[in-house]
Amino acid sequence: MVTVENEDQAHAMVRFAGGAMGVIETSRIAAGRKMGLTYVVTGTKGTLSFTQERMAELKLYRHDEPSNRQGFKTIFVGPEHGLCTIL
């Protein structure tokens, strides 16, 4: 157990200039992650997720997929996608 002498976790609900709502969550010492920086963007058409532990991958879920094909798909990002400098 780690002694924490300051706030370790925070949550915020935000409204963007275009009217979209969002949630921002952060935790300084959440257990179980080596490099837990993660972004998840969810909208009316689906969800896109990125985690720093798997920097060459994106997870994509699209609501418009047929029901028998719905689920997160892994996109392996490489130089062919442009603006990619990690590989």
From TrEMBL:
Residues 4-48 form the GFO/IDH/MocA-like oxidoreductase domain. Pfam families: GFO_IDH_MocA_C3. This is GFO/IDH/MocA-like oxidoreductase domain-containing protein. It comes from Providencia rettgeri.
